[in-house]
Amino acid sequence: MREERELTGSLITRLRTGIPRDEMGPWFPRETIPAYTITSIGSLTVMLTFTLTSFTLATSVPTQLAIVAILLIVSGTLARRYRLGEFDTLLEGIGLIGLMSLLCQLGSILLSASQMPLADAWLARADAAMGFDWFAMVRFLRTHDTVLATAEYLYHALTWQPGLVVLLLVATRQRDRCWTFLTAWGAALVVTLAIWPLTPAVSTFPYYGVPRSVLPHMVSRLPWAVPDVIGPIRAGTLRSIDLDTFIGLVSFPSFHAAGATILGWAMLRTRLLWLPFALLNIGVTVSALVDGGHYLVDLIAGCGVACLSIGLAKVIMARLCGSRAYPAKARAQSPL
């Protein structure tokens, strides 16, 4: 308790009077560079695209969310600069995750203008080749409302998990792993967006011609709304982006699967939490078949993107930070 009071007093003193320049922390340590690079390039690319094309924002919500994320990021950099404890990684991590995810949403909408042929036919053939019966899954869900409701909850768990994972990694003093997680998350977003315009799709429910009335207890409208957004964008008649277009358009590869895999991996070294997070994110991945209207091959590709991104992030962090990012003792205690 005494140490906590001393720490609080020290923080207040630093905020009021500042600290000598030679005691200040760095603005951007090496481990932060990849995540900041991805976010900066993504931000410039999206802004440039809006400037050079006829796309416009019809709502101020994305701008407001971006401002909140930037404020968190700036607060984190200042916290590190003035050495205010572990607040830097927590604030920066949540801000960067939020900003990267927002940029991905905007990027997926802009890239939906791709004129590549729709890939639904070959995605469906790939599922069939693996023996996956999509109609059997739908028939099962029609008679199991509890399973359907659980799938819908799990699908939306991807929205609140990233911030929680950042918090838990900071709280358990896994700062380097947190930055590796942020780098992997950003890399997965980049890879997903790079593939999406080459394989546009309208999702399973519209492709198979299954109306929403088949699953009357399903709350989400996402699988049926995708064609109403992608179609006009591809035709050039939709260029004003409002909240109705923020529905998650990417089919192949599934970022839900990629993100869930990365979240599960991030918690593998947290002894008491790795199993609950692993099970939760297996559920998140599977739920994308229903709420996301994904093909099975989408999920497999998403997991592949995650593995590629994690491997890339680990290599980058090892080169930037040396053995500090992955000390031998930590590697021995963890499967990954």
Structure description:
The chain is globular. The chain has helices spanning 2-17, 33-52, 61-81, 87-111, 120-129, 134-142, 145-155, 157-171, 175-195, 204-208, 222-235, 255-266, 274-287, 296-321, 328-333; strands spanning 56-57, 240-241. Residues 3-9 and 326-336 have low confidence and may be disordered. A two-stranded parallel sheet has the order 1-2. The longest helix has 26 residues, at 296-321. α8 runs parallel beside α12, α9 packs across α14 and α12 crosses α14 (296-321). With 336 residues, it is mostly helical. It contains 15 helices and 2 strands. The protein has one domain (30-333).
Short recap of the structure:
With 336 residues, this protein is mainly alpha-helical. The protein is built from 15 helices and two strands.
Radius of gyration in whole Å, from Cα? 22 Å
The profile of the biggest β sheet is:
2 strands, parallel
Question: Low-confidence spans: pLDDT under 50, at least 5 residues?
Answer: 3-9, 326-336
What gap, in angstroms, lies between the N and C termini?
A: 36 Å
Strand content: under 5%
Helices and strands: which structural class?
mainly alpha
**In one word, what is the shape?**
globular
SS elements, strand count:
2
The helix content is 55-70%
Strands of the largest sheet, in order across it?
Answer: 1-2
The overall pLDDT, averaged over residues, is 87
Give the SSE order as H and E letters.
HHEHHHHHHHHHEHHHH
Q: How many alpha or pi helices?
A: 15
Number of domains: 1
